[in-house]
Specification:
The protein is an alpha+beta fold. The strands form 2 sheets. It has a 4-stranded antiparallel β-sheet with strand order 1-2-6-5. It has one domain (15-171). It is 31% helix and 27% strand. The chain has 5 helices and 8 strands.
């Protein structure tokens, strides 16, 4: 294969245009990612990144089972995301840390906590982009790191759990 040939659309679309289209699809359909979560001192703390599409980041909110988190730090610097989503200025400051006090909440309704990022988008889109955190006390044993790598491409136990829980819970919601 000739190394000088770029990946471009059959219709003459440039590489840059295709890259922007792919990045826009990620921002539209994925929009945010929970990278870690832990419960300590009766508080749930989540970390990750979120790209506000419908309103400025300062107007966005993070929800746990439909209610706002007690403490939110967002937007925080994210130069790593700024490099990936180079065409989106908000990506430079897209990291977050959210904390919810668990003393006053039922967190794992049906075995899952529903995590949502509300940026002013349509409620249906917000629900489609939700992540579901499984209740740790009721978790089944996890496969080995090598087995997880075969399924999701890296041996990340948290990504495997939250991804699987999200697929399961969102499928269960649509069925029934």
């Amino acid at each position: 294969m000739n190394a000088d040939i770029g990946l471009s659309g059959c219709d003459g679309t440039s590489d840059g245009d295709l890259e922007v289209a792919c990045l826009n699809a990620c921002i539209t359909h994925l929009q945010w990612c929970v990278e870690s979560a832990c419960v300590k001192n009766n508080q749930l703390e989540i970390h990750g990144w979120a790209l506000a599409n419908a309103a400025p980041p300062e107007q966005a909110s993070f929800l746990l089972n439909g209610l706002p988190f007690n403490h939110v730090r967002y937007p925080l610097p994210s130069p790593d995301l700024g490099e990936i989503f180079w065409h989106t200025p908000a990506a430079q400051n897209a990291r977050f840390v959210c904390v919810a006090n668990l003393e006053t909440r039922q967190v794992y309704e049906g075995g899952f906590a529903c995590l949502e990022f509300q940026d002013g988008s349509d409620a249906e889109l917000v629900r489609q982009r939700a992540w579901y955190l499984p209740e740790q006390d009721n978790e089944l044993p996890l496969p080995s790191g090598n087995q997880i790598r075969r399924v999701i491409g890296r041996p990340d136990r948290f990504a495997y759990q939250i991804g699987g829980a999200t697929i399961f819970a969102s499928s269960a919601e649509s069925v029934g």
